[in-house]
C-alpha cells in the first residue's frame, strides 16, 4: 500500500508559523504535524510513503531522512509550487499509482481508527464528514446513493451532505480515470486549481463511493485559530504516540 501526501504549499494562512517552515513540520504539542500521521502509518504496516514537497522541501527531506518510522519515504519536489496548486503536486505522484494507494493531505490530524479504515478499504472511496454544520464546511459535497456527485466550496445548504477533507483511497482502475481528468484540467491551463477539481470532474462520469465519518476523527490545521485548537484535539482524540 502506497500513501501519497501532498505537502508543497506555502501555508500562508499559518503565518508567521510558516515563515521558515513548511506547514507539515509546524509543531503541535512539541511534535511536527507529519509525525502523527507517519507514526500511525507505521503501525498499519504501510510499505511506502510518497511526499510531494515544494516550499522548504529540503526541510521535509531532512526530517524524513532522520525519521524513525520508515526507511522508504520518497520525496518528490514540485518545482512549480509557487505558480501551481495541488493538482500538479498530485500529478507528480502518478508513478506510484500502479497499485491501490491513499491520498492524505499533509495538514490533517487523524484518529487512528479512521486511518486504519482508509488503509484497509478494498475499493475506491472518499471520506466525508457528514456531522458538521454546512455553514462551517470548507469543501462541500453533494451525495446521491452513497456516492459523490459534486464538490464545491459554494454549494447551498440544501445541497450539502458533508465535507471532503482530503482523505481518499484509490484502485488503479479508478486512478487511471482520475489521471485523465487531471490531464484535461492541466491542458486547459488549470494547473492552479486543487486536485479536488479533478475528482469533481470524474464524479460526473463514474461512481465514486463515499464513507462517512464524524468530526471527532479528524482535524485540519489551516490557520492560526486551528493551530491554537489542535493541541486539545490531540489530547482528546489521538492515540498516544
UniProtKB/TrEMBL annotation:
Superkingdom in the source lineage: Bacteria
InterPro entries: GlmU-like (IPR050065), NTP_transferase_dom (IPR005835), Nucleotide-diphossugar_trans (IPR029044)
Gene3D superfamilies found in the cross-reference section: Spore Coat Polysaccharide Biosynthesis Protein SpsA, Chain A
Keyword Transferase carried by entry: yes
Coiled coil, from the record: none
Domain Nucleotidyl transferase: 4-116
GO MF terms held by the record: nucleotidyltransferase activity
Cell membrane as UniProt keyword: no
The entry's keywords: Nucleotidyltransferase, Transferase
Protein name per Swiss-Prot or TrEMBL: Sugar nucleotidyltransferase
UniProt lineage: Bacteria, Pseudomonadati, Bacteroidota, Chitinophagia, Chitinophagales
Amino acid at each position: 500500500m502506497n500513501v501519497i501526501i501532498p505537502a508543497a504549499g506555502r501555508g500562508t494562512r499559518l503565518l508567521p508559523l510558516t515563515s521558515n517552515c513548511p506547514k507539515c513540520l509546524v509543531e503541535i504539542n512539541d511534535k511536527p504535524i507529519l509525525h502523527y500521521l507517519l507514526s500511525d502509518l507505521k503501525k498499519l504496516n504501510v510499505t511506502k510513503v510518497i511526499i510531494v514537497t515544494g516550499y522548504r522541501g529540503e526541510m521535509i527531506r531532512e526530517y524524513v531522512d532522520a525519521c524513525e518510522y520508515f526507511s522508504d519515504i520518497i520525496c518528490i519536489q514540485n518545482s512549480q509550487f509557487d505558480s501551481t496548486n495541488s493538482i500538479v503536486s498530485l500529478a507528480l505522484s502518478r508513478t506510484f499509482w500502479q497499485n491501490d494507494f491513499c491520498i492524505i493531505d499533509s495538514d490533517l490530524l487523524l484518529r487512528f481508527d479512521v486511518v486504519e479504515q482508509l488503509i484497509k478499504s478494498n475499493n475506491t472511496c472518499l471520506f466525508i464528514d457528514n456531522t458538521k454544520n454546512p455553514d462551517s464546511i470548507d469543501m462541500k459535497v453533494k451525495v446521491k446513493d452513497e456516492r459523490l456527485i459534486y464538490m464545491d466550496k459554494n454549494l447551498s445548504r440544501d445541497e450539502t451532505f458533508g465535507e471532503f477533507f482530503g482523505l481518499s483511497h484509490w484502485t488503479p482502475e479508478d486512478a487511471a480515470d482520475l489521471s485523465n481528468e487531471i490531464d484535461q484540467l492541466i491542458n486547459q491551463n488549470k494547473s492552479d486549481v486543487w486536485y479536488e477539481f479533478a475528482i469533481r470532474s470524474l464524479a460526473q462520469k463514474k461512481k465514486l463511493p463515499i464513507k462517512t465519518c464524524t468530526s471527532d476523527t479528524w482535524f485540519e490545521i489551516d490557520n492560526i485559530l486551528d493551530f491554537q485548537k489542535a493541541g486539545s484535539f490531540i489530547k482528546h482524540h489521538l492515540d498516544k504516540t
